[in-house]
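### Sample
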Amino acid sequence: MTEMTGGPALPQERRVVTSVPGPKSQELMARKQASVADGIGTVMPVFAKRAGGGVLEDVDGNSFIDFGSGIAVTGVGNSAEAVVRRATAQLEAFTHTCVMVTPYEPYVEVCEELAKLTPGDHAKKSALFNSGAEAVENAVKIARTYTRRQAIVVFDHGYHGRTNLTMALTSKNMPYKHGFGPFAPEVYRVPVAYPYRWLTGPENCAEEAAAQAIDQISKQVGADNVAAILIEPVLGEGGFIEPAKGFLPRIAQFAKDNGIVFVADEIQSGFCRTGQWFACEDENIVPDLITTAKGIAGGMPLAAVTGRAEIMDAAHSGGLGGTYGGNPVACAAALGAIETMREMDLAARARRVEEIMKPRLQKLAGQYDVIGDVRGRGAMLAIELVKPGGKEPDPQVTAALAKACHQDGLLVLTTGTYGNVMRFLPPLVIDEALLTEGLDVLENALAGL
Ligand code: PLZ
């Protein structure tokens, strides 16, 4: 059994002992191909055996430096001590009653924590769900019933999930939407302030993008038909786009002026990832509703909608729920993850990650013309890869770079509307030496392109 121990006990080292993927992973991949639907893709074709701290070990004994955290989930590290301790105790006490049948304390405790941790000192309530997409769906339900309006405004490059409603809210066709329509109605998409790609340049991007967005909402939808404006404070799957400063406050103010519920989707950016508990704190935004998932529970499936009590209470009793939403083991894990974030001050650790990584990425951008932009905050950083001499996206070079990193023991993820962004999402507990070594691997891979 000790052989299977992951968590922080795992040796914190990069170790490549076979070709990647190794023979055991290749064997398992053949079984996956025969039994798992092709729609479930694979970023790095190795099978995980153990993971913890800043590394992931595969079935062939290779140990990868983890710059992905399972897509921004294991901020506290895999199998973090407090997560395992609390979830194990809960597993032994009971696994499920269904909160709608007989409630339990951990559910309430998570909602109490969310009220404390999310921005704003107004009265707050929460409802818990299983996945990010489910949280977003419920935020929309709540906003619609509160406002008695139907339209939902989302943004270019936005990502909100893969269910029917959240596919409609998501911007990118391939792979998320292609062939899966028809999509839910009353969803309207407007421009976002993407500084690197704003046609008139980054200087007036915030103002111009906000003006265009507000004009489109006013002229094409009608502000008083809009139930909610939904935005990721740092757009994740769209390419780690930080909206130009000033954009979010203007949109939030427009929502406030027009009785529109402002929803921050912090599913990827939340829970210390960007160096603050929530990314919208960066510009002092206080959302009416906030959706969270991913980092909230150290890898267990849990999601939440948190917001102004009067909005959250708009849905009638029995109008929200689900069999598993706020499962007690997932809630116990979340309490362990929150305890870890607090005790280790993981927001500060995320800022330290930025301090180490960003200057190094900027230096690489100076050396390699394929890096068009370096951006992000905390431990949510990215480089955008382009054809040298211009800004034409280069998804091929991005994929080649990712593959080279994988083969040399660094787990990296790509993202972006144009598939040309390499993102860095290390666990917030990663050793500084591993961070630096991961950057060395990246640098070598760039040199070998
Ligand atoms: N909102 C901002 O980032 C999930 C998607 C990976 P679920 N992002 C990772 C993939 O290819 O499916 C995400 C997000 C934001 C909502 C979601 C959806 O969260 O837990 O995947 O449903």
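Residues 346-367 form the longest helix (22 residues). This sample ((S)-3-amino-2-methylpropionate transaminase) is used throughout the tutorial notebook.
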